[in-house]
Amino acid sequence: MTRYVLSVEDSAVFEPWREMARAALQRDLPPQAIDWRIRGGEMDLFGQQTNDSDGMVALTEAPVLKSVTLRASCIALLRDMLCHSDPGRFALAYRIAWRVQGNPHLLDVATDADIAKARIMVRQNRQDCHKMMAFVRFREQPVQGEGAGRRRFLAWFEPQHHILERIAPFFSKRFTDMDWIILTPRGSICWDGKDLAYSSEPCEQPELDDGFGDLWNTYYASTFNPARVRTKAMRREMPGRYWKNLPETRLIPQLVSGAEARVRTMAEQELLPAPTFHDRLRARDSLPVEPLPDTLEALAAKVRTCTACPLHCEATQAVVGEGPAHARIMVVGEQPGDQEDLAGRPFVGPAGQLLHEALGAAGVDRSALYLTNAVKHFRFRLQGRRRIHQTPDAGHMVACRPWLEQEIALIRPKLIVSLGATALRALDGPGMAMADVRGTSWRVGSGETAVQRLALAHPSWLLRLGDGAQGDSERQRFAEGLSRVREFLHQPGS
Ligand code: URA
Q: Which pLDDT belongs to residue 161?
């Protein structure tokens, strides 16, 4: 059998091998017919240096016998394993590519020696990437002249395998706003804020000192918890071969040996009792309470900066109430929906549309009403790219209650219409069940401060009910409620 010698650069991770492997498979050459060599690698030490182009030229002179395709899953496996540093990787990859031609399910055979070995190599490459993500330590370099203004960092790392190209995007995404170079004995990667450059040229370890070594060690020592020392787990996570390039490892022996004594001292120290719940409440109540704004505009400005509950983190903006400053009727909904959150106005989405149409049908002028919500930020969960409404909980309602109370105090409406259970609860507390009061009206307080209350269903609920019998009767009840709103609006004296 004619034998071919194919040699590949040690740093070549996939493409050059793929070209040669494709040519060999098309010529139906079994694995025994190919001697895979590493150019510039260990094998040359034994005097077996070959001229790569000779091997490839000899091979391409043989006739092509068939066309070859490899499944994406096979290519992915070979690509993932070929960045390993094992000198036998190119021969193993070719053996798998050859064997998979006759057995398309080879990759599923976990007990097959070639597949098992390939998978171990993939795992080791991943571990190497993981360690590189954790243990690269950048040192800032002085920048002069052109480029001053951007910070520049240098790091030295010794990966076990040829993972640089694979890991580079992680660093460019993580450290986008600084320029950096990572030097390794297997090449280097460089980021200038726009492009990632990769070189397979081996690097020498540079002298690295940015003057912050002591600061870093102080930080590391202060985060070291002596009560949690697990030396075995620590060695597993931070294997010895990485220690020499990690500045903090010089502290570890001394921190570990002093840990027991530190824990004892901590245990002996007098325990200070935490303030009781009652004391904490008293302390909070004695804080001066800032008065709430006394105009609607100032109140709206304050609401827009509210951070009293976590909803402000995800929502686009707080949605404040809108309508005449002295409206006789206030309508309170639950919370802004997706469209209200984007537009910054209440009731502009599908529920608002239904409300708008129902008000029109009942003969109520929307612009005469003050429309607001019990909670001013949109609560949602993400499903893919969609924001799915979530009912606010009691904590969100409590955080927002001062805003609603101040809106009522400033507008002094004579009728407050709640839409749905959240508004009912925000206005009247948890004691009333929506099913008992839906469509009913009652009076709160007496004399000058008396307010009429009307509880109606939420328009989103009516939308969800759809066209069935319940939908029809609830829409009817909603329309009757709005007729009462019209009567109230047109009562003499309004
Ligand atoms: N639903 C509400 O309760 N309020 C809005 O502003 C929009 C939808």
A: 96
Atom of ligand 1 nearest to the CA of 419: 3
Contact 319, 374 (CB under 8 A): no
Residue 274 belongs to a domain = no
129-168 burial: b if 16+ Cβ within 10 Å, else e: bebbeebbebbeeeeeeeeeeeebbbbbbbbbbbbbbbbb
Cβ of 323 below 6 Å from ligand 1? no
**Residue that is last in its domain, among 199, 230, 245:** 199
Closest CA to 217 of 250, 241, 185: 250
* CB of residue 321 inside a 6 A radius of ligand 1: no
The reply to whether 255 falls in a domain is yes
Q: How many structural domains compose the chain?
A: 4
Residue 337, ligand 1, Cβ within 6 A: yes
Looking at the structure, do residues 407 and 473 belong to the same domain, yes or no?
A: yes
Tell how far the Cα of 490 is from the centroid of ligand 1, in angstroms.
25
Residue 204 lies in a domain: no
Assess if residue 288 is contained within a domain.
no
Strand pairing category for 187-191 and 196-199: antiparallel
Distance 239 CA to ligand 1 centre (A): 56
Q: In which residue ranges of the chain is pLDDT below 50? A: 41-50
For 182, the enclosing helix (H) or strand (E) is strand 179-184
Cα 398–chain centre separation: 28
Cα distance between the two ends of the chain: 106
Supply the range of the domain harboring residue 343: 296-489
249 Ramachandran zone, left/alpha/beta (phi>0; psi -120 to 50) = alpha
> What residues are paired with 451 via a beta bridge?
444
